[in-house]
Amino acid sequence: MIQVLRNCRMLLPGRKVCSGDIVVDTVSGTIKEVASGGFGGRGESEIDLSGHLVMPGLINCHCHAPMTLVRGLGGGLPLQRWLEEAIFPVEARMSDEDVRAGAAWGAMEMLSGGTTCVADMYDHDYGQVFVDTGLRARFCVPGLSIVPGRLEQCITATRDWNRWMHDDVKGDVYMDVCIHSEYLTDENFCRGLAEANKELKRRLHFHCSETRREHEECIARHGKTPIAYLADTGILDNGGYAAHCVWCTDDDFRIMAERDVALVHNPTSNMKLGSGFARIVRARELGVNVALGTDGTASNDNLDMFEEMHLASLIHKGLANDPTVLSPWDVVEMATVNGAKALGRDDIGEIAVGKKADLCVVDLDRLHLAPALDIANLVVHSMHSSDVVMTFVGGRRIDLKNKAEAKAKLLAAVKRLGLIK
Question: Is the pLDDT of residue 421 over 80?
Answer without folding.
Answer: no
